[in-house]
Design a protein that fits this description.
Elements lengths: L32 E3 L14 E3 L10
Antiparallel strand pairs: 1-2
Bound molecules: zinc ion.
Length: 62
C-alpha cells in the first residue's frame, strides 16, 4: 500500500492583493484566481465566490 503524504494544501493559495482571501483552485490552474469560500451568500446558502486576475510572475503564495 502506498501513501502519498501531502505537506502543502492542495490549492493554489495565492493571496488576493489588498485582501486576505486566498485562491482555492488547484495549484497549477489556468486563468484567474478564485476563492469559493468568499463572496456573498445567496438565499439558497450558496456563495458566489470571488475571482481576481492572475498577475505576471505570480507562481507561489506568500
Ligand atoms: Zn489561483
Amino acid at each position: 500500500m502506498t501513501e502519498r503524504r501531502v505537506e502543502m494544501p492542495h490549492v493554489c493559495f495565492i493571496r488576493k492583493p489588498g485582501d486576505v482571501i486566498r485562491c482555492t483552485e488547484k495549484p497549477d490552474h489556468e486563468g484567474d484566481h478564485f476563492d469559493y469560500l468568499s463572496g456573498v451568500t445567496d438565499s439558497k446558502g450558496r456563495r458566489s465566490g470571488v475571482r481576481w486576475p492572475r498577475r505576471p510572475g505570480e507562481t507561489q503564495f506568500d
